Amino acid sequence: MHGETKVPGTQGYGEHAATLSERYDRVDVLALYAEAWPYFPAPPAPVLDLGAGSGRDAAFFAQRGHPVTAVEPCAPLRQAAQAKHLDPGVDWLDSSLPALEGLTAHYALVLVAAVWMHLDLKERQAAMPAVAARLAPAGLLHISLRHGPIPLGRRMFAVTTEETVALAERCGLTPIANWAQAPQQRGNQKAGVHFSTLLFRQAGP
Ligand SMILES: C[S@@+](CC[C@H](N)C(=O)[O-])C[C@H]1O[C@@H](n2cnc3c(N)ncnc32)[C@H](O)[C@@H]1O
How much is the pLDDT for 4? Predict the structure, then answer.
């Protein structure tokens, strides 16, 4: 396993972990996944949350009865999440994209929420097969892409729906739907940040 300094995408998160964690926890999960709920598996399907941040989504899915694995490479964020969300249904792991070291199980739902833009092209090319490999047969990948200005001190890259679909299809995933999504956080609204959400299905059994 590795710590924050070895994962370039986590640059700028650790020193503001407390503030960011609170901010992420204020996002309304029901609204965040409003369009996607009809596609999501019923509990107790195993869920993998990659780049879990404050643990908001991990805790929410665990409370609904899903066993959840939450991966977060930024130690201060992960520790804040573990201290706040004491749900026994969440297993926390210090790992990161693209390698996803330490993960061997398969999941009915994989969440990659506002994380993909932290990976450069080479990392995205390596990350998609690693993510696809974690999907159970007929498993669902929910990935949201952040577009817009890069906050000071962060490492982010331009990501597109087209490239993401092409990478996923190369891994045998089928695109199910995609849509544009407005940000909930006021800072993001002011900065002109917006999101694309994409759903992919792994081949069935
Ligand atoms: C904008 S936050 C989103 C957090 C959470 N998914 C949410 O929706 O609130 C981006 C997260 O990605 C994590 N991250 C950055 N690089 C990563 C990588 N290479 N692998 C996994 N997570 C990464 C950061 O530490 C941070 O928690």
Answer: 41
Domains and CATH numbers, the chain: 4-201 (3.40.50.150)
User: What is the CB neighbour count within 10 angstroms for residue 102?
Assistant: 12
- CA 173 to CA 167: how far, in whole Å? 9
Distance CA 119, CA 125 (A): 9
Q: Give the count of beta carbons closer than 10 Å to the beta carbon of residue 165.
A: 15
Residue 70: CB within 6 Å of ligand 1? no
pLDDT digits (tens, 9 = 90+) for 54-67: 999 999 999 999 99
**Ligand 1 center to residue 114 CA distance, Å?**
7
Under a CB-based contact definition with an 8 Å cutoff, are residues 59 and 85 in contact?
A: yes
The share of the chain scoring above pLDDT 70, in percent, equals 98
User: 């407005």: which residue's tokens?
Assistant: 182
Q: How many Cα atoms occupy the beta-carbon half-sphere of 102 within 13 Å?
A: 16
